[in-house]
User: What shape does this take?
Amino acid sequence: MSELNKIRLNKVLREFNISLERVVEFLSSKGHNIEARPTTKISQIQYDLLLNEFSSDRSSKVESDDLSEEKKKEKEVIKAKAEQEKELKIQRKVITSKSSIQQFKKVGEIDLEKPVSQKKTEEKNIVENIDKNSSKIDTKYEKLSGIKETGQTINLESFKKPESKDDTDQKTKRKRRRIAKDIINKDSAVDKNKNFKITKSKVAPALPSDDEVQKQIKETLEKLQTSSKSRASKYRKEKRDTHKKRFEEDVEKTEAEKKVIKVTEFITVGEIATMMDVSGNEIISACMSLGIMVTMNQRLDAEILTLVADEFGFEVEFVTAEIEESIQEEDDSPDNLKPRPPIVTVMGHVDHGKTSLLDYVRNENVIAGESGGITQHIGAYNVELKNGNKITFLDTPGHEAFTAMRARGTQLTDIAVIVIAADDDIMPQTKEAISHAQAAGVPMIIAINKIDRDVANPDKIKEKLSGMNILVEDWGGKIQSQDISALKGTGVEELLEKIMLEAELLELKANPEKLASGSVIEARLDKGKGYITTLLVQNGNLLVGDYFLAGQYSGKVRALYDERGNQIDSAGPSMPVSVLGLDGAPQAGDKFNVFVDEKEAKQIASKRTQLVREQSVRTQKHLTLDEIGRRIALGEFKELNIILKGDVDGSVEALSDSFEKLSTDEIHVNIVHKAVGAITESDVLLASASDAIIIGFNVRPSGNARSIADKEDVDIRNYSIIYDAINDLKDAMEGMLSPDLKEEVSGAAEIRETFKISKIGTIAGCMMTDGKVYRKSNVRLIREGIVITTTTLASLKRFQDDVKEVSKGYDCGIQLKNYNDIKVGDSLEFYNQLEVKKKIKS
Assistant: This one.
């Protein structure tokens, strides 16, 4: 079946209005096993099976859609009628002419068939009736006296013209017979039975109706208006119409182009959200509905980008297609394929023993070199077992900030080992790791660790897994599991055997003789060596001296190192290796390819750099009027600018994602710049210009950066543990928030006497009835239960001495600031306003 005839599963789910599990279960029962993913494509045969089975669900959905469509059409018809009535009202206002045709009034009838005498009688009656109904108009006339004779004669011959030849010929010509155009009425013929003859008469025309009159007036007005226009004005009108039509076409074209977004392979969730003018949370929700777990800074592949854009009504145009086409990989013949070691990713929650397990396998203490005892990088190790078999392990971080790293680990791997502590529960990161493995379609092996502890309960973990629809082999499922102790080595050998068994079932092969290709695991900047990139070779053989391309950077392989830092000459399939020679730090997850010609690699790198620059311009979010209005409504809006530098790209990505999640309505975290490498002078100058703070993760300021930072008063913070950086930034943001004011009542007093002193004012003689009054306290004057005024103390005295405070049971003299209307019997309430630090909601 060709690719064109295949249908994507998410479209089928919408069409039939059924769930994904229902479709997978039905097709499995019919002998068609498919992946339980919305992005899976099914054949026409499978579609026909679904059509036969779920036609009722489809028809109900169609009926529902038809009903909603009918309601929509009814609304459109009502709207169209309203607009039509509005237009008619406007037209009636424009045409104000009225017809004033006087109609004839019927006063009687004359029967032509009756005798003449009888008709005369009827005519006489009609005339009398007319005289009664209408006023009589008398005719004024003058009687002529007759012909007057003058005696003169007129010669008529002098007026005659001489006859020409033409006139003579005209007389001789036969005259054309004229045919009368009068319509003969059938009733106006000679009646043989009567003694008189009825002459031919014309049919009286029908009177025009009011609508016809109005129509005729309108046409006449239009003719009068158009007749006055010259040819030039008609040309101008045609030109205006042409321009209007062209403008409408341009607008339609622009609107259509707005629905097409041009993207590169280097695009994150946040960038695609900006290009489609939607929030990042909406993109993440759309991906979750498709069964894909993503973060704000995670890059999406072409298939997911197409699906997400389709959800929001956009089309995606990939501008890197021409570049990818230029990188052509040769098809491998079966004879050249040889078995390769499996790539195994170890995943799980933080502190569940992933790195300890690899320590035991490698006989090294890797965890001792990790800050805070937690893994913060992807570690790639090649392990040779006692029987000579090799396994490549990828150790991923378990901290919640490293979601993107775990997702990337599942994309590179053949088998996923999920490590769960037997003395703990199935934690959120464990569930996330399982979701990543299921989404990538990678086989899983469950390793239940820490069984050597007294509180360990492996059966509880298996029970919880069954609740997630994951059944291990001990419970009658298909997923392998092994109880282990990474500290003592219990069950580790059995776990490695199960990994090799799973690898044999997968039949993993690669061609070691071709040009190398694979993926970038990490990239860092070394002070002495330059950019060092950790690569995982997936196919071919990488040699020293090869020209290669990774992401938007190119270079020549100057040196190769294994995971222990030993220099090697080549790296085959499934082997992790550190490479020296790239001119930049590519992003983790980028593909790398080896080229024969250095010029070709540099050309593609140049094109990709240009595309990334264009992409950054398109995804740059500008300050809009809506955003300004939102900030004004909030009142005190603040922005925290950060420049982030890290040792490897994965850590920078994880920190950036975590920092942006801390943004609130009142404070927005803005990552001005993020990169791999030491903190340089340019970073400090950028921080000074943008009023930003610099956060370094496992890096230090280089050269004069520290002295310039002190001079420019730029704050540089260095961290080696990720959650320390997140917590410190959280505290800094809470400090930027305007504090909440809390009122604390300190005491109360009763005014027993008042003393008026000239040039000073009124002094209240008070007795403290409760608590204390302080010199800096605020005070409310209360009279008969009503607050009269709120002010502060101008003075507080006991006898003649100024005092700082007066306690309950003592009398004192109090003067209120700028207020003298004090009466005996009034009460005073003293209070202080305390500032309470705001907390950021996590």
Remarks:
- The first helix runs from residue 9 to 16.
- DSSP finds 23 helices and 33 strands in the chain.
- The two ends are 51 Å apart (CA to CA).
